[in-house]
Automatic annotation (TrEMBL):
<feature type="domain" description="ER-bound oxygenase mpaB/mpaB'/Rubber oxygenase catalytic">
    <location>
        <begin position="41"/>
        <end position="270"/>
    </location>
</feature>
<dbReference type="Pfam" id="PF09995">
    <property type="entry name" value="MPAB_Lcp_cat"/>
</dbReference>
<protein>
    <recommendedName>
        <fullName>ER-bound oxygenase mpaB/mpaB'/Rubber oxygenase catalytic domain-containing protein</fullName>
    </recommendedName>
</protein>
<dbReference type="GO" id="GO:0016491">
    <property type="term" value="F:oxidoreductase activity"/>
</dbReference>
<feature type="region of interest" description="Disordered">
    <location>
        <begin position="1"/>
        <end position="32"/>
    </location>
</feature>
<dbReference type="InterPro" id="IPR018713">
    <property type="entry name" value="MPAB/Lcp_cat_dom"/>
</dbReference>
Length: 302
């Protein structure tokens, strides 16, 4: 890449502040006022990257890596853990007070078992409000990136509405509302300051790499197909990661990879734009029904 190209290259979407609500006017600028796509099924593609961002805080990383909650371990039960996370997103932003209360109780019971020991390299507790705020912030940033990518740029009203929904991702548990940044500009300041606390050591990196490559436990494809699948998964995961997290994960990234990522996302965006609303929002639109069913039948929620 030449100097002129680097200067004129647009800022990658994942690096942009959330308070930047629109792009310069132009024939390709897509501005959306839709709020019904807050939880897009395509957003699941950003899931592994968001997990990496959350676990990049050592307290969260070791909390998950050393978790005593066997059924919730992402390395051993990735599908179940994914269902729990996606249900949390759906319940936090669109659930009824009764659904939120039931899910909050279930999550709190699980979190009560997650705390460091004398052997842990860092001190942590799942009820730590600062760590929960970080997790909520990562989830919110992921929602913004997905919306910008697959729906379009937001006007101020839509962006503010999504920010209020994002606050619920942190405050549904122990985070007090006054801990959540007051507005999107305050969120950007919080995010930049929090990057100072980001660090992925060799142990957590080894734990996270199979997640980055979407390498499911117990599922092995034929050699060449497995390599191609992981190569594609790594492209998507790394594309959704801001550069700071790529560096912590030691995942290489260059202009050619960015172009391949952009082309793939553009193709998916085109498909998403013509899909029915039910398809766009799957599986989030069925998870609340699944939650009600689990409550009625006495099945575990997390």
């Amino acid at each position: 890449m030449t100097l002129d190209e680097s200067v004129s290259a647009p800022v990658p979407l994942v690096e942009r502040p959330v308070s930047e609500s629109s792009v310069p006017a132009g024939p390709r600028a897509r501005v959306s006022t839709r709020s019904d796509d807050g939880m897009l099924g395509l957003g699941l593609l950003a899931g592994p990257a968001n997990v990496i961002m959350q676990l990049a805080r050592p307290g969260v990383g070791y909390g998950v890596l050393e978790s005593r909650v066997e059924s919730g371990r992402i390395d051993r039960h990735p599908v179940k853990r994914a269902r729990t996370t996606f249900t949390y997103l759906a319940v936090s932003t669109n659930g009824t007070p009764e659904q939120q209360a039931a899910f909050r109780r279930a999550v709190n019971r699980a979190h009560a078992q997650v705390f460091s020991t004398d052997e842990s390299p860092v001190k942590y507790h799942a009820f730590d409000k600062d760590l929960q705020l970080w997790v909520g912030a990562c989830l919110y940033k992921g929602v913004v990136d997905v919306h910008r990518l697959f729906v379009g740029e937001m006007d101020e009203e839509t962006a503010d509405r999504l920010y209020l929904q994002g606050r619920a991702l942190a405050t549904m548990l122990q985070v007090p509302e006054d801990m959540w940044p007051a507005d999107r500009a305050a969120f950007d300041r919080y995010w930049q300051e929090s990057l100072d606390d980001v660090h992925i050591d060799d142990t957590v990196r080894e734990f996270l790499y199979p997640i980055a490559a979407t390498r499911l436990r117990g599922l092995a494809l034929p050699g060449p197909l497995q390599r191609q699948t992981e190569k594609l998964a790594l492209l998507i995961t790394t594309g959704f990661l801001p550069q700071r997290f790529r560096e912590e994960m030691q995942l290489p990234w260059d202009a050619g990879q960015q172009r391949r990522f952009d082309r793939l996302m553009a193709a998916l965006r085109a498909v998403n734009s013509v899909s029915p609303k039910f398809v766009r929002q799957f599986p989030f639109n069925v998870l609340l029904k699944d939650l009600d069913w689990r409550v009625r039948t006495g099945r575990p929620l997390v």
